[in-house]
């Protein structure tokens, strides 16, 4: 099934590695080898500049230990190639990315570069100088420290300026590696083969009428598929294909280039649906906005709730600011500082607000879920642009309500639908091009979404077919400039660029891989780590039940569907259309304003009740899922953020210790199933659909005793089993026992009050 | 109305698979809050053997989560039991009286407002209970008096329930720990370390156990001399020895240095004998206290080992605070988690309690001890008296070093040895049966230790044979007074009160139902030192203990991973069985692909929770 599409990166790159030798030891070799070294280059990859005798510090200390090698800058990455030959053991790294190794940094993955005295380097500032020490912080949270002081001055200057130029200074999209990579790979051929494949069995790309129709049918929606924009005639900013409420007229479609058009996201089984839209312009002579609302309301029982996310959720700038503060906790260039900050960890975390933003997004999604699930009203979420928080919230809502999106392919399809086709401005939000005028628009919105998914996943592990590792890898892939998925701002943008760059006939656009083609980055074994061993498919019996009943979730609220029982609502729009127009004419739509039933501002307490009611029902992993939003339940995504920090790796521990045991047994069960199948034995269980691999990779690794799993698995596998424990270094200045406790601290354990000292 | 149905009280589905998820915690501790009981309403709460009903009363329970609930409370000599009359599902409370720390009257006969007249009960297990009664006719007088009397029996000349209990178990928990056996397991005595019975009658040290291990070269006379220089006579004795490198963990109390900086040649020589035993170049003395406290202790006659006096020793302070600081810290924690979890700035609030910070200091202290031992160096650990912080440090270090203590029975031995045997003052720290709730001697040191253990099990989910349930059960019975295990301050008091013959051990309960406390993921790995990461990044609040009364949080406490694993194990056994049946009936040679190693398992499928090597 997984054909070797990635023949491009086929020749396995020479693995890079970390060695623990002091510079002195290296120097004793007198002359470092003069031979020009470079990593195995990818197709289309070109070396810009390089410097030898660069010292790469081993990450975890101030002791200046490190390893010498060549530092290069190519059109794809910054790469460090050690002078030492890799040892046999290190070659067998399981979880190896085929595109870049552990000492490679894709150019778009570089976050910040610091020079001597931790001075932040900005592009354009460096003319003839270069620092003796260069620290690179990566967007995947790795930290590299290089010393250039052993290199030839010329080389050092060149490599430093090269790296700064290619990593920090503005460039054109054409310069992104994806284009030269794709032109130089045999990829397109196999890709088009693959696309047929995708079409049938794999990720739904939402780039055709059929995909959209299919998804609407699946959810039993009853809306209108719009194909009038297939050549971006309506608007280059609108998706190529999309779905709107039935009542939207042709005239409405063409007006305002689609601004204010309610775009269908998902239909609830009750018939109501979720729509999203870019905010409607304020002054509208012909009340487009009113007509659009009516159209949405008509979708199901004339009820609609609107939610302007710009009013209630943080802005993209807030998100960026908060994340910038948050990520600093994990970009560690010195262990002493790390331990110093340890005591204030919780309050620092609290103050940066990142977890709170996650909580707000989840809460907003729960509110929308409540409207759909409990009240069966249509919901229209909106924001300026309609493709940031709308994407976050609508995707989260669908994850909570629809178990299909919790499968691996379902999830990928969801990202395609809501984010890629949905027109999230990946390019602007990541600002891969370092354009000065786009600095403002940079924001990790998609990462925020993944964070929210991770919260759901860690609270309801068995509900998701994909693993934590999958999410982490996906979050890393945003910064690998090879995949079309994350390179463009919308469908129109993608189409025009790929067409323009096509080396072939004018008709067929340049084919680049999508991130979903995981074989470009990982081999099959490594991809096994993307599946969650806790996941079970929905038992088959249920589907038959489903046909006879309405498709109700087990953990559904038995609350009466108010929409069905209160017919007066039906006339709401007709009767009060005039009123509504007046309201709309005067001010912006505010929160739930049009909701006839819940005008109370106590959303948070209502969400709480909704959660509690849901919680008392037995949990069905294939039904409605809600996150717990209490303080202790929203947590830090340990795997993503702590994986590179040596001092906090739990050797031989972490959740992976348990999960690998589950994987192991799962492998055995699957093997037994196969044997029983051969005997023609029919099994009632639901483990059949799981991937029929004997053992998952984690189990293989676990079984191999030479490599120990740690909490950083699979990103770091420790080779060294005997080790010194990390002992916090800042214990002494730690306890600032305050106020009341002050004198208690001075007391003796078993003395009465008289023994106060 | 007395029922002797101990077994039914313990009844729970044998197999976790078939147990409804909520019931995971077993019977006694109020986890059934929202769960309906099998028994008839009110009339027949199944009692423990020896348990007697004292009073029943109509009452309103002011539940912080579901509001005021009418129902009936009954009080026995062991528990307070409440069941709501009209709520659906019924809300029940089942609180051992031992868990009650304080009973107060709330409001007066003339108080206004609904439900303003009643009782306010503060529990030792992180919850408070409020009951309201009718305002007329002194309706609360009898129940208040009875509660006060039976919750604090020792203050009223009554016996603790452990002495009244008639419970019988298959296993006798008192036989779990035999000091000589445990020392023999460690390879003791040997040519460097000997067993002494000098304390057989508690004459050397009244808070120490009777059997002690001391340097071979130290004579009984030496011990007596050292005794005079150590606070409360708690001389350095061996707690644990590393089988390979012979490094030892010794524990003791502070030296009686005093303001004048007294020295004691015998003590100095004695510590040097400890150092010498395995040729350690420098003996490391870990003083658990912050150095300022150690200095301050000189004023009251204590102190620490000075550099001049102890030439071959290095002294390290571990900065762990005293029992008062810990008590206040947990109090603050309760404030932010009960009844409701602090909503705004949860993390900052959590940090301001310092609870996890203290946990971190204790764990990192233990890591340092374990690391020294692994490196082949002997250590001496003490604090002031050597029964609080010292016990935490030595037992945690031993948990890291010795995989035996990570088994179900080994852990019981560890507690019996380091905590119960060496005189952690459970009676004073917990205040069993004592009405003086403000007693300054009370402190959650043992709770803190169990929290540290939980942190370790969290970081190493496959390294411990026991599960979280065991830890919660231990903490519940730390307070309950149903078992004798945690009663009294020291062995001497236990002997005087004939504890072992008159009460039942907690381990009788646990060991009669081992599978309930077993961690299915347990993978024995002997000789592996376990170093947890003592960083706030990895320490987390033990939500399923501290916030378990909150129904919103409770949902999260099951481990779906565990459930899934057990399901898969069962499935594997089922398939193996089926496959074997097929093979028996199917004589065709095709069926021979069943791997050899799995065949023996098929014979007895249910027993095989352990690792199976199937060469696929």
Compute the gyration radius of chain A: what is it?
Answer: 28 Å
Largest sheet of chain B: 7 strands, antiparallel
- Alpha-carbon distance between the two ends of chain B: 60 Å
**Which regions of chain A have little confidence, pLDDT < 50, spanning 5+ residues?**
1-34, 188-200, 542-602, 686-695, 732-741, 752-757
From the spread of the alpha carbons, the general shape of chain B counts as globular
> How much of the sequence of chain A is in beta strands?
5-15%
The amount of helix of chain A comes to 25-40%
Strand order of the largest sheet of chain A: 4-3-2-1-8-7-5-6
Spatial extent as radius of gyration of chain B: 26 Å
- By secondary-structure content and strand pairing, the structural class of chain B works out as alpha+beta
Structural class of chain A: alpha+beta
Counted by DSSP, the helix tally of chain B is 21
Q: What is the arithmetic mean of pLDDT of chain A? A: 78
Number of strands of chain A: 14
Largest interface: A-B, 90 and 97 residues
Report the β-strand fraction of chain B as a percent range.
5-15%
Descriptors:
A: 757 residues; alpha+beta; 8-stranded antiparallel β-sheet; 4-stranded mixed β-sheet; disordered C terminus; B: 616 residues; 7-stranded antiparallel β-sheet; 5-stranded mixed β-sheet; globular; disordered N terminus
Structural notes for this entry:
The complex is a heterodimer of chains A (757) and B (616). Chain A is α+β, with helices and mostly antiparallel strands. Chain A has 28 helices and 14 strands. Chain A has an eight-stranded antiparallel sheet, with helices on one face. Chain A has a four-stranded mixed sheet with strand order 11-12-14-13, sandwiched between helices. In chain A, strands 9-10 form a two-stranded antiparallel ribbon. The longest helix of chain A has 24 residues, at 655-678. Chain A is globular. The termini of chain A are far apart. With 616 residues, chain B is of the alpha+beta class. Chain B contains 21 helices and 14 strands. Chain B has helices at residues 6-10, 141-151, 179-185, 220-228, 265-276, 291-296, 323-337, 346-353, 355-374, 389-401, 408-421, 426-431, 445-459, 468-480, 491-496, 499-502, 506-511, 543-546, 551-554, 560-585, 599-603; strands at 53-63, 67-76, 79-84, 92-96, 100-106, 118-123, 128-132, 193-196, 212-215, 237-241, 248-252, 283-287, 313-317, 379-382. In chain B, strands 4-3-2-1-7-6-5 form a seven-stranded antiparallel sheet, covered by helices on one side. In chain B, strands 10-11-14-12-13 form a five-stranded mixed sheet. Chain B has a two-stranded antiparallel sheet with strand order 8-9. In chain B, a hairpin with a 2-residue loop joins β2 (67-76) and β3. In chain B, α9 packs across α10 (389-401) and α10 packs parallel to α13 (445-459). Chain B is globular and about 75 Å long. Classes of the chains: A alpha+beta (757), B alpha+beta (616). At the A-B interface, α12, α24, α26 and α28 of A face α6, α7, α8, α9 and α19 of B.
